[in-house]
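Students often ask why we bother encoding 3D structure as a string. The short answer is that it lets us treat folding as translation between two languages. Here is a chain of 477 residues written in the first language.
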Amino acid sequence: MKKENSISRRSFLKRSAVAGAVGGVVGSGSAAMLSSCCGGGSSCDAAKPLKEPGTYYVPDLVDFAADGKELKAGVIGCGGRGSGAAFNFLAAANGLTITALGDTFKDRVDDLAGKLKSEKNIDIPEDKRFTGLDAYKQVIDSGVDVVLVATPPVFRPIHFKYATEQGKHSFLEKPLCVDAAGYRSLVATAKQAAAKNLCVVTGTQRHHQRCYVESYQQIMNGAIGEITGGTVWWNGGMLWYKDRQPGWSDGEWMIRDWVNWIWLSGDHIVEQHVHNLDVLTWFTGLKPKTALGFGSRQRRVTGNQFDNFSIDFEMENGIHVHSMCRQIHETGGTVSEFLQGTKGSWSTTSGHVIKDLKGNVIWKYDEEAERANFKQTDPYTLEHVNWINHIRSGKVIEQASETAVANMAAIMGRESAYSGKLVTWDEMTASPLDLYPQDISLDQKMSVAASGYGAGKEFKLPDFIHIPGQPQGNQTR
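And here it is in the second language, the structure alphabet:
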């Protein structure tokens, strides 16, 4: 990028940090940004907006939320992401504290309580530390103003529903659901939250990552023309897993090892790849019409999930987008997105770059300028900054219904790969698929009585599952 363009870019960033309004939409500055960052030529001059400035939401990504009403938060789910969200929340503004913790297991609650005491001098008394499968109700009813929900995804619709009924603002980690029943519950609760003027922000942090937000503005301003297709990837290694310990029941083991079990996580296409699918549905503004794909289980060592998926999505307007995700160690991978348009393309493979049809770079996000003009560059914290600013300003934000679209796209892809059949949006959203067990329990025996998988059967490990320390089983689903 030319030096004069880089300087102009810095000036824009600095102005946007000062002048942005909470909950505002992009204004005339976006057109100036496009021209100042383009390399010149007809590809820039002839840009026609896909959406007119002022018609779409752009967050005000300031470093720190404005002062205002003190807010007491409760954390529901005290594992790695819940603990991370707790500290992201505390870093987002003044006048914030955490007063209640809840998790299925006491050791997780106590671990986060210890970190809060040692790092933030926040003391969570014993009577505000709740455990068990109903701990979420106790946290929500404990006198908190807001809740941070970071339990395994199968529980998210239930926890969101109760928090909304009790009038609490919600931060919901992704994904928001694992099945059709959860999707419908989420959409209904999101409407109720908006009607109650509650603020709901989700953990799809790319919506609060400046490089993605500005890429979105470039594309809405017509930088690549009409979107005609693309590919989204999350190809990486296997995530963590928990070996079963003596004394752990079926339920305890699966919940502690939740990221590897379909009914708890939705499989990794839902739990992890939803980030990339969210970029697809956000940037295009489209839902998938159909999904057709395949997948398999090659090296996973626990749980009952696949470890690779390849899905073709046909979107509402007929364009096709390829989705690919994999969790296998020692394989080449990328976590990125690519969109093709009639005038050019956008890619995140090596920074956020827009090229014309000849492959010339006409815009690139300036990360150096961001670091020079902002103190806070962590999107995990910025999503809390935006959430708190909305709560304190009284301007409603409701992201659950938007995230639910990407979530359902992931579920469609999973169901197509499992079945080998074409899956449509209409049939999937109306499906009776409900993975929540009828007899969820921390007792020794548990039946995964879901209408989709293992309905009415006593729970046992399928033959294809390999448990560490035991012989490898059949790898056919």
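Translate back mentally: The longest strand covers residues 227-236. Keep this in mind for the problem set.
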